[in-house]
Amino acid sequence: MLAGLSIALPFVASVMSAVIPRRRAPLGLTAATLILCVQPLNLLWADDLGAPLSYSSEAEEPFLYLGTSPYVNVYLAHLIKHVERFPTALSCLTPEARTSDTPDLADFSWRSMKYREDVQVCLFRIASSYSTMDQMEEWMRSQGMRIGRRTFSFVRKDEVSIQGYWDPGELGAPYGSGLLFDTWISLISNGISMSVRYADNGSVHSTYVIVNTK
What we know:
- The chain is 35% helix and 16% strand.
- By secondary structure, it is an alpha+beta fold.
- Strands 3, 4, 5, 6 and 7 form a 5-stranded antiparallel β-sheet that branches. It has a two-stranded antiparallel ribbon with strand order 1-2.
- Strand 6 (189-198) and strand 7 form a beta hairpin.
- The longest helix is centred in the first third of the chain and has 18 residues, at 2-19.
């Protein structure tokens, strides 16, 4: 019977690895804890997301917050260092994805996100790379987020927002580094909202990352 198990177990393991999506550990966890705390990473392949319209850049699609560039509004000047740290959509990806012949926007480098504003800028880069809101929602799903209802601006009815919900208890902190930061975010937050607002012409008007405290 033991001999039969020794043959069956590798077969079961190979089947499970074929059907279970690729997974990642929350930020800050070491390889020693990986087996104890694994989390979803890219649940969709590039073909499921659809090819990006382009790989956006600051030169072609400047980062905007509420439709305004931080370079022209003194109250947004604190965002400039984050814009310059991530000047292109490719700069938001893993090192392996950046050097690929066909970079996959699902290979997002969460470990490179040190601050909430880093995520905010990179959300803008990714959203600006896709041609439709549907593609951006699929990208959010590929990162493990739950998708909320699309909402319309109270000020301008022609502006639409899509929203993803990040569960730090399940996925770890989406920015920062270290197990202590992961734990702190999990303790104070019951979810992190990441949203993209589109103007009436379909262009990205603003992005938001909001920690919903308990």
